[in-house]
């Protein structure tokens, strides 16, 4: 498994849950360099080889492809790609779209070079992290919400192309989760200066509860699924 943004918030708890499983390799790509977290993951299950590569999802597609060449040369096979990077700040319009959507499109596009059955590839599984805002917008952060709707739509298309590419895909869409993402953030054009405080008034789930259901969704591996991960539950969403 390759996980993008596997060292922060939901990503780190997901990495912890993944290494408890019967994995051979967990490859973490992240802007965060956290040797202590890597050491902790290795200690949880010494049977799993945990490796880390510094990576920024806003890097050009060519750089992403170059990094994946390095990883595939090392591992030979990769079964799952998890796209987990995300930011929440509607003041940073271009960066929000770049991190939440464009970067995810690029990593997906890059890995198709290695997986696409039309090129003799073995296929693979893509798990994209969306958000419940992707189908139920928080209107005070329309840029963030729209970027997550784009993730859901893009992933649905990838799933429907599976018969051509051999690559299946699904989204996991967390509800409000206790992460640094929601502690303090800006609304679009400051339409709601207290947006973070107001969001905090709603029921939230822990990153651990979210991560546990996240891994359940990966294990279920249902092509085209839109999973809602909210308040410690895992629910399939019907959305057209």
What does this structure look like?
- It catalyses: a secondary alcohol + NAD(+) = a ketone + NADH + H(+); a primary alcohol + NAD(+) = an aldehyde + NADH + H(+).
- Keywords: NAD, Oxidoreductase.
- One of its GO terms (biological process) is alcohol metabolic process.
- This is Alcohol dehydrogenase.
- One of its GO terms (cellular component) is cytoplasm.
- With 240 residues, the chain is an alpha/beta fold.
- The chain has a single domain (2-237), classed as NAD(P)-binding Rossmann-like Domain (Rossmann fold, 3-Layer(aba) Sandwich), CATH 3.40.50.
- The chain has 8 helices and 8 strands.
- It has an 8-stranded mixed β-sheet with strand order 3-2-1-4-5-6-7-8, sandwiched between helices.
- Strand 1 (2-4), helix 1 (10-19) and strand 2 form a beta-alpha-beta unit.
- Helix 1 packs parallel to helix 2, helix 3 (61-75) crosses helix 4 and helix 4 (93-115) packs parallel to helix 5 (142-160).
- It is globular and about 50 Å long.
- 42% of the residues are buried.
């Amino acid at each position: 498994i390759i996980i993008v943004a596997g060292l922060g918030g939901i990503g780190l708890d997901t990495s912890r849950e993944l290494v408890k499983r019967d994995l051979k390799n967990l490859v973490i790509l992240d802007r965060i360099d956290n040797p202590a977290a890597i050491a902790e993951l290795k200690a949880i299950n010494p049977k799993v080889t945990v490796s880390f590569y510094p990576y920024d999802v806003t890097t050009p597609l060519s750089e992403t492809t170059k990094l994946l060449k390095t990883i595939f040369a090392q591992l030979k096979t990769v079964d799952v790609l998890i796209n987990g990077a995300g930011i929440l700040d509607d003041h940073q319009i271009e960066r929000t779209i770049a991190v939440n959507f464009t970067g995810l499109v690029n990593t997906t596009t890059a890995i198709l070079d290695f997986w696409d059955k039309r090129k003799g590839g073995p296929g693979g599984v893509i798990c994209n992290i969306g958000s419940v805002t992707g189908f139920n917008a928080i209107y005070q952060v329309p840029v963030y919400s729209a970027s997550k709707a784009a993730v859901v739509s893009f992933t649905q298309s990838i799933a429907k192309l599976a018969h051509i590419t051999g690559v299946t895909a699904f989204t996991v869409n967390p509800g409000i989760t206790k992460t640094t993402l929601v502690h303090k953030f800006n609304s679009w054009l400051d339409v709601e200066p207290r947006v973070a405080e107001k969001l905090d008034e709603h029921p939230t789930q822990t990153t651990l509860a979210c991560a546990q259901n996240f891994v359940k969704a990966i294990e279920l591996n249902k092509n085209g699924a839109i999973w809602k991960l909210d308040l410690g539950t895992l629910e399939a969403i019907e959305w057209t």
